[in-house]
Amino acid sequence: MKKILVTGGAGFLGSHLCDRLIEQGHEIICLDSLFTGSQKNIESLLKHPSFTFIKHDVVDPIDFEKLDEIYNLACPASPVHYQFNPIHTMKTSVMGGLNMLELARKTGAKVFQASTSEVYGDPSVHPQPEEYWGNVNTIGIRSCYDEGKRAAETLFFDYQRVHGVKIKVVRIFNTYGPRMAADDGRVVSNFIVQALRGQDLTVYGDGSQTRSFCYADDLVAGFMQLMNAGDEIVGPINMGNPGEFTMIELAEKVLRLTGSTSKLIHMPLPQDDPKQRRPDITKAKQLLGWEPTVALEQGLERTIDYFKKVVTQ
Ligand code: NAD
Ligand code: UDP
Q1: How far is CA 96 from the centre of its chain?
Q2: Which of 214, 134, 220, 222 is nearest to 174 (CA)?
Q3: ipTM of predicted assembly, 2 dp
Q4: Ligand 2: which of 81, 173, 189, 247 to mutate, judged by most atoms within 8 Å of the beta carbon?
């Protein structure tokens, strides 16, 4: 049994990760400021004797005597939320990353960083392999998130080089599933909630921009495979589902699967919105034998079932 710290553990992805780690018999400390996460996501775990929840902001240092592994997921992921307090978002990635790396250095724990496809910015290489250095606007409204995550990657690799800390870095592409917050602002939750409420689906721009959507269970399995792989496999490694769809295609799928008669309306495209995104997952396949198993429609059906239970009309 390992002692594992999960930051952002009350969030969408973090809570699924905590579920899997508890199932495997580990002792979990879940650290979360509850900025975008919720105790509801970890309701069943709060009673578990091997699960501890600590409300804490990763920007502030924290000490533990013994830890085997740290999964650093703390950071708002939806553009609406990470742009709400952009300076704090940057601090969360940089100071939060630094605090977790210091903790790893002191305890000898392996430390995992939830990085992002946003390090590629609005990519001029498609699909995106890990070798691509990206195309990020340093001063735009998405930069607090993109540049924060890029700086965190730098810190992780410098801690490995300078202090010999064992690191694991994954670049996550758009992921969806149950426990996304209904007001999260990301496209999958927005479209499903709007369709279930009979509201217009808000397509930003002309809807021709593309994304690749990975189901949460697939991604979390990949996180654990990377953490448990040999120390020589550090990443950065792309994880996502290579199926690529326009936002119009996504909207049409959601309408069909919900049976909703809602209409599509077009809203302004946000500044610096990437035009296309699809992961090259060759490395994840070769190094970890990982690839997604849940197709978009299958994952959407499960996510729609979840939102039917939590969304009030
Ligand atoms: P989420 O917003 O549901 O979860 C983030 C969690 O971190 C929340 O519980 C929030 O309260 C907590 N948090 C935020 N700032 C914090 C702080 N300063 N201190 C402590 N806790 C804090 O988002 P998610 O989709 O579960 O994302 C989890 C991680 O994965 C994030 O680091 C995100 O950047 C990364 N990621 C997610 C996606 C995706 O599509 N879901 C894509 C790329 C990267
Ligand atoms: N989007 C949209 N309608 C919405 C929310 C988002 O058309 O209600 C678009 C957004 O402009 C982007 C894509 O969907 O092109 C994915 O947005 P999301 O916020 O989910 O993630 P991103 O990949 O931008 O971080």
Answers
A1: 16
A2: 214
A3: 0.98
A4: 247
